[in-house]
Design brief:
By secondary structure, the protein is mostly helical. The chain has one domain: ABC transporter involved in vitamin B12 uptake, BtuC (Orthogonal Bundle), CATH 1.10.3470. Helix content is about 70%, strand content about 0%. The chain is built from 17 helices and four strands. The strands form two sheets. A two-stranded antiparallel sheet has the order 1-2. The chain has a two-stranded antiparallel ribbon with strand order 3-4. A hairpin with a 4-residue loop joins strand 3 and strand 4. Helix 2 packs parallel to helix 9, helix 2 runs antiparallel to helix 14 and helix 3 crosses helix 12. The model has no long low-confidence stretch (mean pLDDT about 85).
Amino acid sequence: MNKKNTIRAVVALTVGVAIIAIGDAFLGPFAVRILNLSAIYIILALSLNLLNGFTGLFSLGHAGFMAVGAYVSALLTMTPAQKSMNFFLTPIVPWLDTVQLPFIVALIIAGLCAAFVGLLIGAPALRLRDDYLAIATLGFAEIIRVLITNAQSLTNGAQGLKAIPKYSTTWVVWGAAAIAALFLVMLLRSSYGRTIKAVRDDEIAAEAMGVNVFRVKVTSFVISSFWAGIGGALLGHMITTIDPKMFNLILTFNILLIVVLGGNGSITGSVLGAIIVTVLMEALRFLDMPMNLVFIKTQGLPGLRMVIFSILLMIVVLYRQRGLMGTKEFSWDMLSAKALLAALKPKKRGERARKGGR
């Protein structure tokens, strides 16, 4: 990176921090909640993109890892009085009754527990490929949810946990999102990151070069599970209440939607996709409510927001099949006059055909 781009990066970082600070100080509670949710979705999208985009594994089990992280962090940070209030039907297990750890320690332990569960699941499941792997991870995620529902003395079962300490402030979640993005950038730029991409591009060729493909897949799965657990823990500490119904297949599909929209294999795309999807889903909420337009009056159509959002998504997928960023990452050179003219210049028919066939 040359000196000019370094200065631009520092200025952009300063502006970003200033925007977050202004938003946290002057926006209302609901807007701040959307701002923080965007950061949590960035972490979750990055964790899933590490599998789907960079390692080439199609997994649908992220909701299960999020549930593990959320429950572990909540149980480790709640006071004995809060636990007693929640576990009124069945007493909590004695060894967890008086345990209370600092938030950062509990957050790391939550990620490690999710990573351990990811190791237990990945060891057998990653011997499968493509759709079979997706079905297997989806089944494991459902098993985790069922276990949480029935472990009454450990998780409070279907009642869930309430009055969770609200530790997920704006600075905490955006700091965690920045760390997750920086970690992924450093990982993918390392020699191990190039190995991950080699496995994605051609497993047979990578194995012929001496790469232990199975170990690379398991390692990537464990790292992804760790960050999914971190994201789930932050989500629980933001909304201060969790239950097994939260961590269903729809939640995984929402994260998958962000990855596909932003670009399967792009860190920048995951960040942009998380912000766009989170903000747009809330901006379109008025469509579910009664509307009094000039020529049209509605009594409220629940679900219309999702219909419009799905139509917009279909338009994007039709005209940008590889997402907003594809596999590209943002660079200051993209904003140069030469790059902008090249992007706007219409491609020749033969060139489009060659790119379409790749």
